[in-house]
Amino acid sequence: MAIGKNKRLTKGKKGGKKKVQDPFAKKELYAIKAPSFFAVRNAGKTIVNRTAGQKIASDGLKGRVFEFSLADLNGGDEAQAFRKIKLVAEDVQGYDVVTNFGGMDMTRDKLCSLIRKWQTLIEAHVDVRTTDGYVLRIFAIAFTKKQTNQAVKSTCYAQAGQVRNIRKKMFEILTEEATKCDLKELVQKFISTPDSIGQEIEKKCQSIFPLQNVFIRKVKVLKKPKFDLLKLMEVHGDSAEDTGAALDKVAAANTVKALKGAGGRL
How far, in Å, CA of 83 to CA of 110, rounded? Predict the structure, then answer.
């Protein structure tokens, strides 16, 4: 076919090249605020597309889940580095993302370091409801250990009946500890060093079989109560209630004296 017949063959593509835009030019930075039961309140930053038309930036942030090491949230305590904390974005105030507890887990390397030969692994999980209406599923893990007078045998396996009794005791302790407090108090128990619930299980099960390395392995939030901003601010240690300015009693008394003979007029 002759080139002269088709004029489009000699020209480039229609429209030319599109202008390349930097995707980060449309983004905004927001600060992540951790609840008051952690030592570090400014947990980090997150990015989101800025408000454009009907797409509002705060809507893109609500419900976002952030995962942190407990060591980072508690001022760099490396003894707690094996715990992973999930924080859920509940509200956006200005350029601050206000979060709440969303779950807890254990790192894989820590879990693998606990599992050894010649001992019995015992796991239990239970669903509990806190006093403020949160439904949580708590997973606990424990390992048997040699008795103090055990010398010849290298193994310390528990019998099936003993495992059942230990698991039953775990259910009782987890339910008792979780149902008598609210979410804030319960999370403080989870992140305490040493693990207060783990120690309680170890102490109560001593008569059945000696245990070691008892941990709350995982916590899932199954159900939340209806969103309440006042309760969220309580978790963050900030009061949303306006209490007014402090009253200067001396200045108030002087004002009353000045108004006494004025018939109520200044």
Answer: 9
pLDDT, position 14: 64
Residue 92 tokens, joined: 């956006």
- As given in the structure block, the two tokens for residue 103 are 């779950």
How far apart CA 170 and CA 50 sit, in angstroms, is 48
Alpha carbon 8 to its chain's center: 62
CB atoms within 10 A of CB 34: 23
Q: What is the 3-state secondary structure (H, E, C) of the chain?
A: CCHHHCHHHHCCCCCCCCCCCCHHHHEEEEEEECCCCCCCCEEEEEEEECCECCECHHHHHCCCEEEEEHHHHCCCCHHHCCEEEEEEEEEEECCEEEEEEEEEEECHHHHHHHCCCCECEEEEEEEEECCCCCEEEEEEEEEECCCCCCCCCCCECCCHHHHHHHHHHHHHHHHHHHHCCCHHHHHHHHCCCCCHHHHHHHHHCCCCCCEEEEEEEEEEEEECCCCCHHHHHHHCCCCCCCCCCCCCHHHHHHHHHHHHCCCCCC
Q: What are phi and psi of 213, to 5 degrees?
A: 50, 55
User: How far is residue 5's CA from residue 138's CA, in Å, rounded to a whole number?
Assistant: 77
91-109, pLDDT tens digit by residue? 998 889 999 999 999 999 9
Q: Give bridge partners of residue 31 from the DSSP assignment.
A: 45, 96
Q: What's the whole-model pTM score?
A: 0.76
Strand pairing partners for 52? 55
Residue 89: CB atoms within 10 A of its CB come to 22
Query: What pLDDT does 250 receive?
Result: 60
